[in-house]
Amino acid sequence: MGTILPHSALHYLKFCEFEETAKIFEKECKSKGKPVPKTQSSPPADSRSLIIQKDLISSFEDGDMKVFFELWAEHVPTDIRDSDPAVQKLEFYLHIHFVIYPLKNSLGRQDKAELDERISHFRHYLETRGAALSQTTEFLPFYALPFVPNPAAHPSFQELFQDSWAPDLRKRLEKLLSLILKASATPRLLTLYNLKQTQAQLAEAEKRASCYMRRFSKMQADYHNLIGVTAELVDSLEATVSGKMISPEYLQGVCVRLFSGQMRQSAAQSIDFTRPGTASSMLRASIAAPKDVPLLPSLDYEKLKNDLMTGSDRLKALLLQALRWRLTRSLQGEQRDTVLQAYISNDLLNCCHTKQKTVLHLVKSKNEIVRQYTARLINAFASLSEGRMYLSQFPPLLKLLVDCLHTEEKDSVARENVLGALQKLSLRRVHQSTLIRQGLIGWLVDELQDSDSLSDYTLEYAVALLMNLCLRTPGKRRCTERAKHVLKVLTDLLGHENHEIRPYVNGALYSILSVPTIRLEAKEMSMEEILHCYTKEENPELNRQIEFIIKQLNSEEEPQDELESDDEEDEDGDDEEDVMEADLDKEEVLQPQPKELSGENLLTSEYLGIMTNMVKEKRRWNGPSAQSTDEPLQRPVTPRLPTAPGKCAHCPLVCVFTSVYVVFHCTDRLNAEVEFPRLWDQKSIT
């Protein structure tokens, strides 16, 4: 861009009205032996701007309304007229000046028509651009001006007819015009800056033009190809009318040409286009417009987190509810992924700040509703694979949740959600190990002892969680400490009226009976006879499971201990499908008061941020990890929707889809895959 001379810099400073800075700059230049030439101190005036300013003032003085507002609209930028309050007020008074001009400078009765025209123009202005000031006290009386027969005699308008009013308005007009129509020349420094910006914009425009040209060339080539294919197909139709047959090879060649621009040549050739409907289906799919996914506005997360920590208990509860609803009520797919990724990337729950009090600590709040709604939100996060990964970044969370199980009232909504969150988090081996060390197996067994007093939600999630923990070697060791008690509770649960829990009870029994000391306890309490009592001819599925449990009971095999290092190796093992159950939003105790904002209205009214649509690519499930077939495969999965159980002839556990996150295992993965491929593909058998 070249060297910037001192006089150019000084000119720029004066142009921007940095007077003090300009004086210091000039003084320093002089002290360094680089005085600024005086000839450049005052730039030449812009005569055109002065002419425009003179014409505007002249038409103001002459009362020439039409000429004035034509010049005003042409030379006062629209953005200034629409956004600057001072300019809007001046424009309002200018309209008043022109409407009362004939009354102040009357030349006779012939002015009646002109006065009516000006009043009509002013009325139109009041209904359009002037309507914005109708709520301002200063201008409210003037909206009656067009309807007053003699404004000069009306007390509300006396000020307008004083001799000083028009000159004062002219001074304000001159001041504004001097700012807008600056007579000084643009500094060279600013010209160079604008030139650089223009060059950057030009380069960007050329880049876009090149991209559009490539797209146009491709579109043109596709068009020519389509015309050629269409012509050939017309020839073929004419040939068929004459009785000539079209060979499959010819049709294949036409279709390959048709789709060559949309897929690789080899891929196009590998598709059997001779199958009826194949080519037409691909054509329709290629032009099908994707469904628009409505985007939820982004939020001011810093303000949200601050209010969650410092706001009133009611505000905290309303925000926790609104944030949960945004997650549970969003559309599954891109919309929900966008919401979750926004929560995680902005660290909504402060999971990444373990040394300070976080939003997660609200689960220990003194306010019952705040505790409940915090637990609901945590449970919603835990329902999604990415959410579980995010919660895992806060190691103290598991202890917080386990403490809540001990302190919350039996079967409260808060405790149900805490239990549900722990069940989902137990899909990760490292969390299983932590929960086992914290003695959760003993607590679960004690709670399940009085199963009739538990809700279905608590019962199902408690049994499923117990099963997950019992599948681990440390979990089995914990069960040996109170083996008889654990076995008694599990066998009693087999007779429970809630049949949804039976696969999980069977899984827990089958697992812990692999331990010799527990098998011994089971035999001493006549476990085999007890199990036979639960066999029913009308339920062959249950009978088959019980047979496998009895087989395990009578086994002499020694269990293989797992390595504790498996926790770290399985860190990425939670790739199960996301399921957002309806129970997350059940029994809402918090209801908004009249005129109180809640839900999405609260978020978008008080916490609106900058709109973004950044979706992080979700991890893909790559099938079960390799594991020795000598040991039963034990891996958490995320079931889909309730459906009928599937049979597998190689283990006592049927593969069941339920609303509960549960661990399944099969002693012969290869045979299961061969015998039961459909459910294997859907990840129900592991």
From TrEMBL:
Any one of the GO BP annotations: cilium assembly
InterPro entries for the chain: ARM-like, ARM-type_fold, ARMC9, ARMC9_ARM_dom, ARMC9_CTLH-like_dom, ARMC9_LisH, LisH
One CC-aspect GO term: centriole
ARMC9 CTLH-like domain boundaries: 51-182
Ranges of biased composition (kind: Acidic residues): 555-579
Region (Disordered): 554-579
Protein name per UniProt: LisH domain-containing protein ARMC9
Annotated organism of origin: Pygocentrus nattereri (Red-bellied piranha)
